[in-house]
Amino acid sequence: MKYYIPNQHGAWAMLIIPFLFGIIASKPNLVHILLFACWLIIYLLMFAVLQWIRTKKTKFYRKPVLVYTFVLIPFALWLVVLRPVMVVLALVFLPLFIVNAYYAKQKRERALVNDIAAIVQFSLMVFISFLIGEGTDYGLAAKLFIVSLLYFVGTALYVKTMIREKNNKRFYYYSISYHIALVLLSLWLLPWVMIAAAAVLLIRAIGFPRIGITVKQAGISEIVCSIVVLVSVWIA
Length: 236
Hints:
mainly alpha, transmembrane, 236 residues, 0% strand, YwiC-like protein
């Protein structure tokens, strides 16, 4: 199953949180179920495609790509029939996916630029989910898109201080500086509950790399942080 199921645990939060942000900014309806089914299958398909590009292991990744493509087609067609605008919105993802494909081919998929390209893609789901929910407050949708973007960029920086840049003090201070800026920005623009969430993220960025928690513990803590951010947005 390892060729079918992504091993990037943090990506699951990026898959779900922006989708829920879009619902918060609009109203839930049954089409959201279809949208999420498509979104999940697309994520699984793109993982297999990028791994195929990176490893060139056609033997292992051709079947997952074909399976997910065939599963996606009826769901995607159904969604397009209900919401034809999805065809246009899907094109927005293409240049960002090309960036991911380039870094996969170069075997540099952990590069920060590649992470940011993926984060933008995931965060764009805020707008799509918002449109599916027939939302009218585009300003709110834009704010939640920015919240998603800023949160996950901070998470990418923090995770690197726990794994790939574990012994890089300069990168650790980059992460802390980013999270301090996030708190200051929250103090200026956001409600108290989201300021509190930003403070939690700052404490995490400062403390956990020093404590030296395991990768599994870091993953669990990210689930908690994602819930904190989601709840803060919902309350606000």
